[in-house]
């Protein structure tokens, strides 16, 4: 071993190792230097900590709150549904033969529906009947369109209305002048004591006549309310003046023409005037209106029917003494409102009757006559005064 340590080869290797160990350190320094230079560059990437900029994405929290914000709009829409319920109440009307603007019966009922439009926000529509064969077809239009309420105007639509009430049990029906023999939950008959209204008109005519002769021009007596008006008029006139002469005529054309023939009403009234009648009661829709027009032209007094015709037939204002009213407009409106309020009941509902104001002719009616009429009205309401009406006969009332 000592020999190896002392050999020239060992000495050479040892010298080489010693030389390399003593070589300058610069090369390693030059090589390692890049590492520190690169390492500092990493800190320069500190923009990553700039992920605090992510908080700048705080819009996300801002957007999230705005998602709930639309939610309030849903509630604000929901509340409008109850408020829109009245507006969603769909109310239809089918006229009897004649026009919606007949200045009388159909118009009075339609005005009740229009009042529901104004005050309850109802959607309204009407169909005019020109032929009695179309009653059921016209009613069906509203049933198929899912209307909430349907008003049918006139006695003649009674059977078609009752049939429709069975066919459309979810609808509510109001039959004006339609007496209900059997109650149905969804059908109300709006009826009136026309004999009492006629009685007041007859008493007024008897107390105001100067000739001692009065007349009445009526629609078809097939319709019980027409017969009741006429019978009441005769009874009231006779009670007020026993020796009164009363001329009475009814249209012979039945349902098809009984209420739509103003020419017949006018010519018949002119005949009565020729027989000295100085006051004529006209109860028959457009037919009766013809009578009032004749009275106005001949400068005698007329008494209208169903509604205050001073308002609906302005061309006869100058000669219109009063009107024998069935308060159809408020009666129809109150029943429609009952549907909205959940208080609708089927069966017969008796509406109010009375005389309209005297308007321009008020000065011609004495205080004594007005007091007497008030007493008669009170007696009719408490049934201490009887009109003599019993049941329909289909005949034209005669004195």
Report what the structure shows.
- Helix 13 crosses helix 14.
- Strand 6, helix 11 and strand 7 form a beta-alpha-beta unit.
- The strands form two sheets. The chain has a six-stranded parallel beta sheet with strand order 2-1-3-4-5-11, sandwiched between helices.
- The relative contact order is 0.12.
- It is an alpha/beta fold and 399 residues long.
- The longest helix is centred in the first third of the chain and has 19 residues.
- The protein is built from 17 helices and twelve strands.
- Among the domains are: 109 residues, Rossmann fold (3-Layer(aba) Sandwich), CATH 3.40.50.2300; 148 residues, Response regulator (Rossmann fold), CATH 3.40.50.
Strand-helix topology:
Layout (H helix, E strand, L loop, with lengths): L1 H5 L1 H15 L3 H7 L1 H8 L17 H8 L3 H19 L1 E8 L7 H16 L2 E7 L5 H10 L4 E5 L4 H10 L4 E5 L10 E5 L2 H15 L4 E6 L5 H17 L4 E6 L3 H4 L4 H13 L4 E5 L1 H13 L3 E6 L2 H4 L7 E7 L1 H13 L6 E4 L2 E3 L11 H15 L18
Parallel strand pairs: 1-2, 1-3, 3-4, 4-5, 5-11, 6-7, 6-8, 8-9, 9-10
Antiparallel strand pairs: 10-12
> For the residues shown, what is the average pLDDT?
84
- Quantity of strands, as a count: 12
Order of helices and strands: HHHHHHEHEHEHEEHEHEHHEHEHEHEEH
Distance between the termini: 171 Å
Multimeric state: single chain
Unreliably modeled segments? 1-86
Radius of gyration, rounded?
A: 47 Å
What's the CATH superfamily of the domain at 194-325 and 366-381, by name? Response regulator
| Cross-sheet strand order for the largest sheet | 2-1-3-4-5-11
- What structural class should be given to the helix and strand makeup? alpha/beta
Query: Which percent range fits the helix content?
Result: 40-55%
Give me the number of helical elements. 17
The major beta sheet can be summarized as: 6 strands, parallel
- What is the general shape? globular
The CATH class name of the domain at 194-325 and 366-381 reads Alpha Beta
CATH architecture assignment of the domain at 194-325 and 366-381? 3-Layer(aba) Sandwich
Tell me the CATH topology of the domain at 194-325 and 366-381: Rossmann fold
Q: Note the beta-strand portion.
A: 15-25%
């Amino acid at each position: 071993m000592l020999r190896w340590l002392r050999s020239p080869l060992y000495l050479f290797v040892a010298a080489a190792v010693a030389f390399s160990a003593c070589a300058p350190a610069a090369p390693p320094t030059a090589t390692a230097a890049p590492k520190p230079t690169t390492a500092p560059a990493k800190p320069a990437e500190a923009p990553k900590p700039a992920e605090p900029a992510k908080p700048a994405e705080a819009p996300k929290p801002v957007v999230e709150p705005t998602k709930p914000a639309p939610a309030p709009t849903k509630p604000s829409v929901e509340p409008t549904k109850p408020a829109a319920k009245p507006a969603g109440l769909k109310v239809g009307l089918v006229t009897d033969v004649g026009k919606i603007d007949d200045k009388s019966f159909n118009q009075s009922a339609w005005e009740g529906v229009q009042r529901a439009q104004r005050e309850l926000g109802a959607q309204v529509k009407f169909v005019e009947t020109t032929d009695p064969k179309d009653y059921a077809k016209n009613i069906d239009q509203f049933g198929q369109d899912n209307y909430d309420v349907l008003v049918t105007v006139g006695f003649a639509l009674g059977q078609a209305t009752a049939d429709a009430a069975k066919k459309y049990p979810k609808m509510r029906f109001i039959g004006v002048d339609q007496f209900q023999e059997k109650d149905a939950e969804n059908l109300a008959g709006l009826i009136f004591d026309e004999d009492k209204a006629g009685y007041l008109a007859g008493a007024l005519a008897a107390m105001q006549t100067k000739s001692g002769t009065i007349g009445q021009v009526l629609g078809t007596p097939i319709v019980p309310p027409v017969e009741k008006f006429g019978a009441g008029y005769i009874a009231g006139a006779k009670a007020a003046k026993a020796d009164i002469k009363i001329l009475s005529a009814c249209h012979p054309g039945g349902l098809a023409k009984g209420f739509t023939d103003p020419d017949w009403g006018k010519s018949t009234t002119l005949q009565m005037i020729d027989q000295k009648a100085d006051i004529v009661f006209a109860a028959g829709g457009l037919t009766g209106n013809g009578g009032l027009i004749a009275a106005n032209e001949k400068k005698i007094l007329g008494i209208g029917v169903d509604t205050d015709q001073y308002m609906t037939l302005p061309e006869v204002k100058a000669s219109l003494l009063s009107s024998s009213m069935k308060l159809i407009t408020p009666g129809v409106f109150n029943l429609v409102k009952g549907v909205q309020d959940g208080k609708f009941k089927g069966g017969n509902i008796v509406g109010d009757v009375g005389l309209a104001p005297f308007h321009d002719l008020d000065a011609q009616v004495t205080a004594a006559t007005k007091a007497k009429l008030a007493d008669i009205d009170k007696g009719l309401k408490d049934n201490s005064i009887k009109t003599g009406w019993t049941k329909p006969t289909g005949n034209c009332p005669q004195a």
